[in-house]
Every structure is written in C-alpha cells, then in structure tokens.
From TrEMBL, chain A:
UniProt xrefs under CDD domains: GATase1_CPSase
Stretches for region CPSase: 1-186
Family label: Belongs to the CarA family.
Protein name: Carbamoyl phosphate synthase small chain
A single GO molecular function term of this UniProt record: carbamoyl-phosphate synthase (glutamine-hydrolyzing) activity
Keyword terms: Amino-acid biosynthesis, Arginine biosynthesis, ATP-binding, Glutamine amidotransferase, Ligase, Nucleotide-binding, Pyrimidine biosynthesis
Functional note: Small subunit of the glutamine-dependent carbamoyl phosphate synthetase (CPSase). CPSase catalyzes the formation of carbamoyl phosphate from the ammonia moiety of glutamine, carbonate, and phosphate donated by ATP, constituting the first step of 2 biosynthetic pathways, one leading to arginine and/or urea and the other to pyrimidine nucleotides. The small subunit (glutamine amidotransferase) binds and cleaves glutamine to supply the large subunit with the substrate ammonia.
Length: 379, 1102
C-alpha cells in the first residue's frame, strides 16, 4: 500500500502533561489515547516492543526514525496483542519489505485500535523526556481536534504510572503449559505478571516444561505443578503495588525452591528481600545497554525495558530474611541495580531481558544459570 | 584492568600513498591511534611514506619516519628505534602485509618486537579464504547459523555440468584455480556460457581445476563493525546496509547506516554470527569488519569475508555513530578493556555499549571515470571509486539527497525536469551497475516504471525503491502546486530537496527559492550525533542539519572561524586539502578562536569530532554553508569564513558567500577572480612585468582557432576554474582543437576555454608562498622532474630544486611577490612557472592552499597552512616569525646547502582499471591529472631521496638485471648517458630496433627484442610484451611518441603495470632513476625521522 505523501493525511497532536505539544499526522488508529510517555532507543524489533505487555499503558516514542520497514509477521510478536497505549514515530514506512512480512504496521496498529502519531520531532521529544522525566501524554488525531488547553486538561486527568497495579490486567487468566523442546528435564512454574512469549520459549529450549500461571496464583497453585523452579516474569506498573507477588515469592524463597526473576520479577525479589524500589527519571528502554556481571567482570549488551529499579547497596553484601544477598549485575551507564542474587539460597533475578526479543542474545546464559540451580537442587 | 606496563614504545605503520581502496580513512585512524598512544605516555614511532597526512605531522608521533613502507625500510627503523611493540591494524592492508612479512622473515623476533592488536594466526584466519571458510564452518557448528557460499571443485566438463545441479542451478560463478589475478573467472547464466567459461578455465588452470560457486548476485548486502577486548567483551558498533545489492564492491556502493530492512530476529542472527566469528578468528583486541549477504527470498545468510583490522568501513562507522573505532582499538591494544574506556561524546557512559542512531547516514561513492575514458565503468567486485561523501539526515530521503549533492558532481543530484526518457531503455540501462545508476533509476521512475519493474531490473530492496518513489512524488507535488507554501517547502526539505532542485522544478533561481523559504520561516535545525539517540546528554558538538523542530546549537562567546573543507576526495582534490584545513583549525584554536569545521568526507581527519571545536557534517554547497553561517551567527560572533584551504570546492563559493554578506577572510573573492580569470591575470602579469606563454581565451571554436593560429601549435587547452587539469589537453592540430571544443561540456560564455602556447622541453617549477599584504614568505620551490606538459600533480618534483641556482630563485621570488601583491593575496598562493631557455614564464597562479602545501611544509619543517590561516585572520608574517610559527629569519628559498632533499612522487591508479575488453588502460602521463596520491622520499642527496620515493610509490628500483629501453626520437639524444650508466651498474639492455641502433652507434650494447606488432619470431623469440609478462624484464623505459600517436607502447606499459615492473615514461625520470640506482648501489641507505631532519634544519638556520 502506498499512502499519498502529503495532504491526504489526518492531522494529529501529541500533548505532554507539562504543556509541550508536537503536531504531526495520524498513524494507526484515529482517535485519542493516553499513557505514560517513554522513549525506546532500539533500532530493530518494533513488533516485539509493541507486543511486550510491560508497555501496557505507555505511549512509546521510537527514537529510530524509520519504523515499519519490515512490516508485520505472525512469528515475532511477544504476546497476543499490541500493548502500548500509543505509538510515536517520525517516518513510518509506506511499503514494508521483508520475505516474512504479511501486512504493514500501519494496518496492524489501526486493526488493533492503537492510536499513533507520525512526523513529529521524536528527538526533541526524547530530549524533553530525558530532561523532565517520563510523564503523562495524550495523542489526539482526527479532522476536528479540540484546542490544546482542552487536550492538556484531559492529559492531566489520566492516571499516573506511579502507584499503578497493572500485572493482573495483562497476565493470562488461565494457566497454560509451554512444553519442553526435546526431552523434558525440568518443570517450572512461571508467574505471569506480563510475560513475553520468548521467555518460556528460552526455557523450553533448555528442556523445561513451563507452567505459566496467572498473576493471582497462590502458593498452593504454584506447588501443585510440582515445580523444580519458579520463575517471576516481567510486567508493567509500579512494583510497590505488587503485594501479592511479593508474598508469593517469599513463600517460594522459604521453601528454597530455585527461583529466577526477570524485570518486574527482579523488583519483586528486591521487595521480598526488603529492599525498596523507585521510579527512574526516564527509565531504560533499548537494546544497547551495557550491563556488567559483577561475578565475572564481563560486560553484556542487553535489552532493557524498565521504568522502576531496585534500591540495593552496590558496595556490600546485605543480610536479608533469606540470608545474604548481593547486587550481581549493574548497568554501566548509570550504576542502576540490574541483578540480585542470594548467596545462601538458590535465587537470582535480573532487571533486564536475557530472553531478548528484541535485543542481543548476550545474556542468554542466565537461563543456563537457572538450569544449573535446578540441577544443583536435585543433586 | 589498566594498561599494560610492559610496553614503553610502539611502532605504528601507516598506509602509504592514497590509492583506490586505501585512502584518507587510514590517516584518520592512524592519527587517532598515535594521539591515544602518545597520551598514554608511550613513545610512538611512525612510518608512513605519505607526506599529505596529519599523522606524519611531527607533533603527532615522537619519531616520524617518512620512509617507504617496505619490510627493508621498516626493519631499518626497528633496528634504530627498537620499539617494544608493533601495531599493524591501523594502516590498512599495506601495514598488515608489511607486518606479516616481517613476522615471517623473523625480523620481529630478531628485535623482540611484539605484534599488538592482532596476532598472525588471527590475521591469516581472517584473510585466507580457505582458512576463513573453516572459521565459518566452525561457527555454524557452534551456533547453528552462518555459512559460506556453496561451491564445488571440478576437474572435467562432466563435473562442471553436474556441479551446477548441486549448487541449485544457474547462475554460477566459475573460478579457475591458481590463475593470476583471477584470470578466466566469470558468471555463467546458462549451459552455453558455462561450457565456454569453464572450458577456458579448465585449460587456463595449471591443475585443470575450476571452482564453481553459487551466485549471490543481487542478494542484500550488509556489514557489521565489531570490537573485542582482551576480556572477550564484544560490541557491534554499527550495521551498514548496501543500497546496491551484491555484485558491487561495498566501496563503490551507496551504503546506509543503520541497516534499514532487517527485523530484530534477522539482525540478531547477523550479530550472533559476527561475534562468533571474531572469537573464532581470534581477534584479541581491536576491531573487525564482517560482510554478509542475505537471500531476499528466504533470509539465508552467507558470510562473505572479514577484515581483521580497521578498514574504510570502520572509519565510516566511526563517523556515522560517533564511536571512534581506531581510537578505541589503540586503547584496547595497550591493555584497556571496553568498560574502562569512556564514551567521548557522553563522557559519563563507557565504550562497552552499542551505539544507537536516531538519524540515517548515507554514503555515496565518488568516481573518476572521466579521467579514464577507456576504462569500463561497470561496477564490479573490484573497487573503482576514488572518494566518498557521507550525509546525515533524520530520514533516508534527506540523507540520500544530501549525500548526492555532497558529491559535487554534475548530474549527481536527482533531476526532475528535462525530457522524460524511454522507460524500457532506462530500465535496461539500470540493470548494469554504474556510477550514477541511482539517477538512471530515478529517470526510469519518471518515465513510468513501477516499483516492481525497478526491483526486477536492479534488485535494489523494495523499501529503498519506494523511498525513491517518495522523492519522485514530492517532486511532482512541487511541480504541480499552485504556489510554494511553507508546508510544501518544509515537506520537500524534509526529504532532502535542495533550493537548487526546487528552483529547477519551479523554474526559479536558487536564490529566489531561498528568499521565499526564509520569508516563510523554513530553515534547518542542527541535531547532534551522540551515539545514544538522546538518551544521555552529548558533550561533543558534532552536528548535522535537518528540517525538524528543535536545534541543538549552543551559544558561545568566543569568536568563531568557520573552515570550509574540501568534500569528497577526487583526483586533483584529495587529502592534501584536508591537511590544510585541519592545520588551520589547530592554529586558530591555539590563537584563541572557536573553530567550526564544515565537511562531508567521512575519510578525513577534519571530520573527526576531536579536530575542531564544532563539526558540521554537511554538504559544501552554497545553500548548506549559508545555513550553517546563519546558525552560527545566532550562536555567537563570527570572525570569518575560510575558503582558501579546502581546494576548489570552497573557493568556488567565495564570491557567492561574500555577496550574501558572509565575512570571507583571507584572499578576497575579487583577488581570487584576478588569479583565475585570464584577462584579469594577464593584467596582473603585465603590471608586474612578467611573461606568460602566449595565450588567449575563447568561448567558441572560431575564437580558439584564431588564437591557436596566432600563437602556433602545439597549444595547451583547458577550461577555466577547474582543478587537477580536468579536461586539459595538449592539442597538436586544428582538427583536434575542433573536436576538443565540441566535446567539452565545461565551456560556456562565463566559463571560457583557455588556449596557451605549449612550452616543449621547459623545466616546470612550483612555488608555494605566503603573503600578508606586505611581506612574502617563500614556502618552497619545487623543481619538477618531468617536463612541462605533464600535470604538476602527476609529476615528481624535488625540493629544494636540484638544478636551479641562486639567480633563478631570486627571479622566482621577485615574480612570486609581484603576483601575490598584484592579485591581492592574503594567505597562501601557489604559482607554476616554466623555465624555457632562459625565460621564466608564469603558467598559472592559484591564490589558495595547493596540493603541495603538506609536502613543502614537511620538507622545510614549517607549517605553511597554519601560518596561512593566521594571516587570513590578520596576523602578519613578521608577527608569526616573532611568535615562532615561522622561522625567525630566512624562508623556503634560502634553505641551507646541507638541507635534506625531498622528492615527491605521484601514485597512479592504472592497475584498477580495465577497458570493456578486460585490457589494462594506458599509463602515459599528460596535462590532465590522474594520480590518486603521493609519497615523499627524503634524504641528504637527490639520488637516495628519489630511490626512496620510487620504493614508496611503486616498489624498489632494481639495482641490477635487465632494462628495456624504447624511446621517442626526440628523447634518443638524452637517453644515451643514462643508458650508459645503467650498463655501468651491470644492467643488461634490451631495446627495440630503432633505439638499439642509436645505442649501438654510441657504443652501448643492447639486445634487440621484437615489438608487440611484430609478433613472436620464427624461432619462437618472444616479443617484449611476452618477456615482461614472463618476468624477464626488471626495468622499463618507454617514452611515448610525441604527436598524436600516444598509443604506441600501450601494450608495453599495461604489461608493466600488471607485472609491477618499474616503468619510466619520461627520459627525465630515467635520469633521476639512474641517480637513485647509483645511490642504492653505493652502500647503505639510512633512515632518519622528520624530527631529526627538522632539528638539523633549525640548527642550520640559526
């Protein structure tokens, strides 16, 4: 499909809660949408980003100017739908080109009712968010857009991300099983707080049968699957609201079942150990972040998508209710805690995304580490 | 882990002269590396024969050897300097090959020198095709992905026919084994072609063996730039996608960063394969570049090759991302790890990350086929471009159109006016990749081609094709709109349309479009290249323009000097001009100015974000420069714009800039005109009482004929306002004059053709000088080795002049001063003189930095370009002498008697080109410049310096063996003495019958050999061409016959090129070579650093 270049397009405007506005053209669905404005710096992987449940209620600004070049296929999504509440791009593709492409991104966004905007100075917007921090935003498109004052009032009425409890909104309602690929070696109960499709796949590749359980699962339900290990997934929202998963995790830690957490799961572990969490000014969203594994000194280039972080001391081992804990991984850009591990129990977590999708595969070894923990427990 | 403490000194090998495929990017890399190593407290020893480089500036290294990069000379340097380590990965293939051969011959071991940055095993694994295939197989074993192109070895025609099926059908590539230079290889599209090519291949191959390989022609092509440290941390710095699919050398392709048409899964697969390869090859510290091909129909990935070193692509990637690969490679080589090295641009984050881009970078190649009319212009897997331009935009269309106008070549920008061509013809033409194919594609689109038709013809990815359609649609809107409103102009600008293009489409003048645009408030903003897509604040002002909302140019208080660079390298305007611009930046920064560099050439030091206070990576057109001046004038005071250092490109903008109110400093536009315009220059000469060869200017054949009739043939004709002798020719008769005028496209009433009397047998002299309005500083006097009529850029020359006396220098000084004063020079001037009989003629004057400024500066140890920049901004020569930038007393015309002799030799690109029949192109020198680069030989006497220059440029002069001599009649007299000398040195002479006869009459024995035209003799006697091919000739002297028939000797000279036998095409070069051979045969030739030469010179001056 080829859009005409100019004129025939529907106007759109993006309004930030501090009053700054950007004019552009409608992209995807026409209408209005609200969310937290965040920017993502990945140059590839827009399909994975859009379908990552952690982006629930967020309006994602793509810093890469060309988006949609490879179209949309049915293989790459990380979940059954697009989760972002709005999408901001500079130069959407008019014609997708890829042997796996089935339709255009524009069509896909429209079909799923995702309101977007194109043609805005995404770099200026990104710099604004970097300086002022992530904030609420609204995108409005259509032939008759109200004045900016009215729009701003609407944006300011939208809910904030701080204090939002969103896992239950994105997680599966029913438990399901991802079978092991090849010989089954382990069973893992994975608590879905907004899990991405690649995560159980990475486990399945290692002979793990993954029982994906709803965010509301109880300790009994977890142990009903007789897990060799328990996994806590990524997910949207403020970890300080995640009281149920924290309690659930404490139950798992008490039993010393091997435990692995990713992203939201890392924040849950932090809380379970008694550390606080806090909101980063503008978060880490991209696939180029340098993380150091402090146990080996090696640096891995990793995929990130987090607006909150764990507040744990970098320079010492902490005593917790579950024994000694230490920060295992740190982001070299800003020294943010990127991983935790218990020294006396088989539990660890990372703030970033070893399953990648989108992103580099440097941290895939962490799944092997989880497997080792489970092997260790068996031995 | 900090740096290694066991290394105190490092030898860095440069890449030598600029040649096609190995250009200024290695000066950029090497300069970065040397600076880093020096900053780390190491003693840096550098060898590079190319004087036109920043890296050979005496302050960059501790000991700088401008000596030939051959194992022999590098060993001498090692023996003298005894470095602890050798860093071979920053000087291209030249440095790598030299290091490898010194490893193999035991020199490194003998002197205990450790190779750092790459080990020999890794280099071999990366470079050797068979070993690399094994690497790729091992990688596939480990990670399940990556493969080499499928191939099958065949020993008979039956093998060949069945082999095709195992490869999956036609087309296939046929490569005969063990033939020289890939002889006999080719593409077979069907059985008939296969039988022909493979049949011939089986015959040609000494082992009756051909390799059949699946064809990946037309596949998508990608490159990744990777870095690895000693802790095995690996990062991918940049991905690059080629606009032109497989089949065109990546150096000749339009390339785009980042990759545009890969999903994350596909990109991560390339990344995984790339990382596995760098590990498998074993590049311990440093960078490498890996090329991939991807089948557009199913995504199959083929690994094509890797370079285990810094490359042209890594320079491009550094400029494209702001991640300085060479600098970091140097740090890794001395023991740092990526996480210990800060990212220069953010200062806060480490280098162990992967840059992310929020803009698009397009690189476009610059070709010089107009200089080699007989060469086949089809683009293949052999690189043919001589330079490149890079542009940055916020989207592909903006970057592409900026890149095309950066090429600064007629027809490089898309044209949307003029007759619409025939679609079928245009599509058929677009099948063959050539310089400007993208413009042919655009014309096909104008002629109604569909996206599918364009893809079918070119295999250019459909996404790129659609972007071309987008550009065409904008052009249509511009054409059909009732009037230009702000929205429409802004939209066109966002897709890279220039004011010139908009004007063409709307039938308006460029300045009218600009006025309308400014009135409507449509102006570019400047964004920052920051490695991180704005995630972190950037500290380095590295800017590009875009028609977007928010500008990032910060205000400043210091007065700024804007220096206009020279754009893409081309023959006649190369790295020498970048050298002068960089020097100006350094000198003006020292003098308290804020320096602002504008350039679009990614290979250069000037476009390193470290060089100037601010860098604008922008095209050098009037529009782009005016917008930068505007943006900078909003940021703070502007002291001036320098146009005289970047060659003809900025010089050509001078008047228009001034007309637009821009403060051009240095030589005024009017003065530039006075030197460039023949009439005005004639008046300058007349007033100064200086003779010029008889001449005139003409805009028609009739006028030209009248002038030629009056002054007599031969005449030298050329267009005005050109560089590098473009279109210059010696015309011997009226017929040729008529065809010259009708063929020349550069001639118009405002750009007349110049007709000069041609001075046969004159000595040509080049002078570089500084003038501040009162005082002259004679920078240097260069005496050409070849006679007048050969372009000064292609001619070897010596400084100080070897046959001119004090009286001549006095005359040259007086003439130079007269011209500098008469023209009104403020800064540098270069004048070419011809000494014919006893008359000193003025050939031409260029009121700007010349190609020879770096050579003169290095030969005399005086930074002329720095001084010129200061004079432009108001300093006087007296002040600069007092300050110490210029010597206290004396100048380049009063060098002490024992000053070293420097010889500059030009390097020609002959071996790169073939005509459409696959034969080499002729190597005769003429008035049109065709060299790509130069070397310098420096020593205490001329012979040794000349021998060094030859060794640096073409390989060592032979000191014994067989010399073949065949000269034109007019040269026969002057050949006798040098020929006798050759015999005295033990050479056996061979000659064609005519030359042999003359030699014999003079008592010199020479074996008569058969001319090519005579064919082999009755008893199988070989012709001279066969003898050359068989390696039986060590030195060739072949001067072309005077008038017209310049093709005589063609076969001899092309054979010499293909066998790399030294071939002298003038009798003057023979005389010089004989002195060189004499020096080589008289004992040991030593090496001496520039610093030592300078110390000696300074001591002698005081």
């Amino acid at each position: 499909m080829t859009l005409s270049t100019r004129g025939a397009q529907t106007p759109a405007v993006l309004v930030l809660e501090d009053g700054r506005a950007f004019r552009g053209r409608a992209y995807g669905a026409v209408g209005e949408t609200f969310g937290e404005a965040v920017f993502s710096t990945g140059m590839t992987g827009y399909q994975e980003t859009l379908t990552d449940p952690s982006y629930h209620r967020q309006v994602v600004v793509m810093t890469a100017p060309h988006v949609g070049n490879t179209g949309v296929n049915d293989e790459d999504p990380e979940s059954g739908r697009i989760w972002v509440s709005g999408y901001v791009v500079r130069d959407p593709a008019r014609k997708p080109s890829n042997w796996r492409s089935q339709r255009s991104l524009d069509e896909e966004l429209a079909a799923q009712g995702v309101v977007g905007i194109s043609g805005v100075d995404t770099r200026a917007l990104t710099r604004h968010l970097r300086e002022r921090g992530a904030m609420r935003v609204g995108i409005f498109s259509g032939e008759a857009i109200p004045d900016e004052g009215t729009l701003l009032a609407k944006v300011r009425q939208a809910p904030e991300m701080t204090g939002a409890d969103l896992s239950a909104e994105v997680a599966t309602k029913e438990a399901y099983v991802v079978p092991a690929i090849g010989t089954k070696k382990f069973t893992v109960a994975a608590i879905d707080l907004g899990i991405k499709g690649m995560t159980p796949h990475r486990m399945a590749e290692r002979g793990i049968e993954v029982h994906v359980l709803p965010a509301t699962a109880t300790l009994d339900e977890v142990y009903a699957v007789q897990p060799d290990g328990v996994f806590f997934s990524n997910g949207p929202g403020d970890p300080s609201t995640a009281d149920h998963p924290v309690a659930l995790m404490r139950g798992v830690l008490e039993r010393s079942t091997p435990l692995f957490g990713i992203c939201f799961g890392n924040q849950i572990l932090g809380r379970a150990l008694g550390f606080g969490t806090y909101k980063l000014k503008y978060g880490h969203r991209g696939i180029n972040q340098p993380v150091q594994d402090r146990t080996t000194g090696k640096v891995e280039v990793t995929a990130h998508n987090h607006g909150f972080a764990v507040d744990a001391p970098l320079d010492k081992v902490s005593d917790t209710a579950f024994g000694r804990a230490e920060v295992s991984h740190v982001c070299l850009n800003d020294q943010v805690v990127e991983g935790l591990q218990l020294l006396d129990r088989p539990a660890f977590s990372v703030q970033y995304h070893p399953e990648a999708a989108a992103g580099p595969h440097d941290a895939a070894y962490l799944f092997d580490r989880f497997v080792s923990l489970m092997e260790g427990q068996r031995a | 882990m900090p740096k290694r403490s066991d290394i105190q000194s490092v030898l860095v090998i440069g890449s030598g002269p600029i040649v096609i495929g190995q250009a200024a990017e290695f000066d950029y890399s090497g300069t970065q590396a040397c600076r880093v190593l020096k900053a780390e407290g190491l003693r840096v020893i550098l060898v590079n024969s190319n004087p036109a480089t920043i890296m050979t500036d005496p302050e960059i290294a501790d000991a700088t050897y401008v000596e030939p990069i051959t194992p022999e000379f590098v060993e001498k340097i090692i023996a003298k300097e005894r470095p602890d380590a050798l860093l071979p990965t920053l000087g291209g293939q030249t440095a790598l090959n030299t290091a490898i051969s010194m490893h193999e011959n035991g020199v490194l071991e003998k002197y205990g020198v450790e190779l750092i940055g790459a080990n020999v095993e890794a280099i071999n694994k990366g470079e050797d095709r068979d070993l690399f295939k094994g690497v790729v197989e091992a990688v596939k074993e480990k990670i399940g992905y990556g493969e080499s192109a499928r191939s099958v070895i065949c020993h008979s025609m039956d093998d060949v026919i069945t082999g095709v099926d195992t490869l999956g059908g036609y087309p296939v590539v046929v490569r005969p084994s063990f033939t020289m230079g890939g002889a006999g290889s080719g593409f077979a599209h069907d059985e008939e072609e296969l039988r022909r090519i493979a049949g011939q291949g089986l015959t040609l191959s000494p082992t009756t063996e051909v390799l059949l390989e699946e064809s990946i022609l037309g596949w998508k092509e990608y490159e990744l730039e990777l870095m690895r440290d000693k802790n095995d941390n690996v990062v991918v710095v940049c991905s690059i996608e080629n606009f032109d699919p497989m089949g065109v050398h990546t150096g000749d392709s339009i390339t785009v960063a980042p990759a545009m048409t890969l999903t994350d899964r596909e990109y991560q697969r390339l990344r995984d394969v790339g990382i596995a390869i760098i590990r498998e090859v074993g590049v311990d510290t440093g960078g490498c570049n890996i090329q991939f091909a991807i089948d557009p129909t199913d995504g199959r990935v083929i690994v094509i090759e890797m370079n285990p070193r810094v490359s042209r692509s890594s320079a491009l990637a550094s400029k494209a991302t702001g991640f300085p690969i060479a600098k970091i490679a140097a740090k890794l080589a001395v023991g740092y790890t990526l996480d210990e090295i800060p990212n220069d641009i953010t200062e806060k984050t480490p280098a162990s990350f992967e840059p992310t881009l929020d803009y698009v970078v397009v690189k476009a190649p610059r070709f010089a086929f107009e200089k080699f009319p007989s060469a086949d212009a089809t683009l293949t897997t052999t690189m043919k471009s001589v330079g490149e331009a890079m542009a940055i935009g916020r989207n592909f269309t903006e970057a592409l159109q900026k890149a095309l106008r950066s090429l600064e070549k007629k027809g490089s920008q898309f044209a949307f006016t003029g007759p619409v061509g025939d679609k079928a013809e245009l599509l058929a033409e677009a099948v063959r990749p050539t310089d400007g194919r993208i413009n042919t594609v655009m014309q096909a689109i104008r002629a109604g081609a569909t996206q599918e038709e364009v893809f079918d013809a070119t295999k250019i990815d459909p996404w790129f094709v659609d972007q071309l359609f987008l550009i065409k649609e904008i052009a249509d809107e511009l054409a059909s709109a009732e009037r230009l409103d702000a929205d429409l102009i802004a939209e066109a600008k966002r897709h890279g349309f220039s004011d010139v293009q908009i004007g063409e489409i709307r039938g308006l003048r460029e300045d009218v479009v600009r006025e309308v645009r400014h009135a409507l408030g449509v102006r570019p903003v400047y964004k920052t290249v920051d490695t991180c897509a704005a995630e972190f604040a950037a500290k380095t002002p590295y800017f590009y323009s875009s028609y977007d909302e928010e500008s990032e140019v910060a205000t400043r208080t210091k007065p700024a000097v804007i220096i206009l660079g020279s754009g893409p390298n081309r023959i006649g305007q190369g790295i020498e001009f970048d050298y002068s611009c960089v020097h100006a930046s350094f000198a003006l920064s020292d003098a308290g100015f804020e320096t602002v560099m504008v350039n679009c050439n990614p290979e250069t030091v000037s476009t390193d974000y470290d060089t100037s206070d601010r860098l604008y990576f922008e095209p050098l057109t009037l529009e782009d420069v005016l917008e930068i001046v505007h943006a900078e004038s909003l940021a703070g005071p502007i002291a001036g714009v320098i146009v005289q250092l970047g060659g003809q490109t900025p010089l050509g903008l001078s008047q228009a800039l001034k007309d637009n109110g821009v403060p051009v400093v240095g030589t005024s536009p009017e003065a530039i005109h006075a030197a460039e315009d023949r009439g005005a220059f004639g008046r300058v000469l007349a007033e100064a009482g200086l003779p010029a060869p008889k001449h005139g200017t003409a805009t028609t054949f009739a006028e030209a004929k009248a002038i030629a009739d009056e002054i007599g043939y031969p005449v030298l004709v050329r267009p005005s306002y050109v560089l590098g002798g473009r279109g210059m020719e010696i015309v011997y008769d009226e017929t040729r004059l008529a065809s010259y005028i009708s063929e020349s496209t550069e001639i118009s009433p405002t750009r007349p053709v110049l007709v000069d009397r041609f001075l046969d047998d004159a000595i040509e002299i080049d002078v570089d000088a500084l003038y501040d309005g009162h005082e002259l500083y004679l920078g240097g006097v260069m005496e050409h080795i070849e006679e007048a009529g050969i372009h000064s850029g292609d001619s070897a020359c010596a400084l100080p002049p070897i046959t001119l006396g004090g009286f001549d220098i006095k005359r040259l000084r007086a003439s130079t001063e007269g011209i500098a004063k008469g023209v009104g020079v403020l800064g540098l001037i270069n004048i070419q003189f011809a000494l014919s009989g006893d008359i000193l003629y003025v050939l031409e004057a260029n009121p700007r930095a010349s190609r020879t400024v770096p050579f003169t500066s290095k030969a005399t140890a005086v930074p002329l370009a720095k001084a010129a920049a200061r004079i432009s901004l108001g300093a006087t020569i007296a002040e600069l002498r007092a300050e110490g930038l210029l010597p206290k007393t004396g100048d380049g015309g009063t060098l002490p008697l024992d000053a070293p002799i420097s010889v500059k030799e030009a390097v020609m690109p002959w071996s790169r080109f073939r005509d459409i029949h696959g034969r080499g192109v002729d190597t005769v020198l003429g008035p049109e410049m065709r060299s790509t680069g130069e070397v310098m030989g420096i020593d205490s006497v001329f012979g040794t310096a000349y021998a060094k220059s030859q060794a640096g440029a073409y390989g060592p002069l032979p000191t014994k063996g067989r010399a073949f001599i065949s000269v034109a009649n007019r040269d026969k007299r002057s050949m006798i003495f040098p020929a006798r000398e050759l015999v005295a040195h033990g050479f056996e002479l061979m000659a064609t019958s005519g030359t042999a006869e003359v030699l014999k009459r003079n008592g010199i024995n020479a074996t008569i050999v058969r001319k090519q035209s005579e064919g082999p003799g009755p008893n199988g006697e070989k012709t001279i061409v066969q003898l050359i091919h068989d390696g039986e000739v060590d030195l060739i002297v072949n001067t072309p016959y005077g008038t017209g028939g310049r093709l005589d000797g063609y076969d001899i000279r092309t054979a010499a090129v293909s066998r790399s036998v030294p071939c002298l095409t003038t009798v003057q070069a023979l005389a010089a070579a004989v002195q060189g051979i004499d020096a080589l045969n008289h004992g040991d030739v030593g090496v001496r650093s520039l610093q030592e030469h300078a110390e000696h010179l300074t001591a002698a001056r005081d």
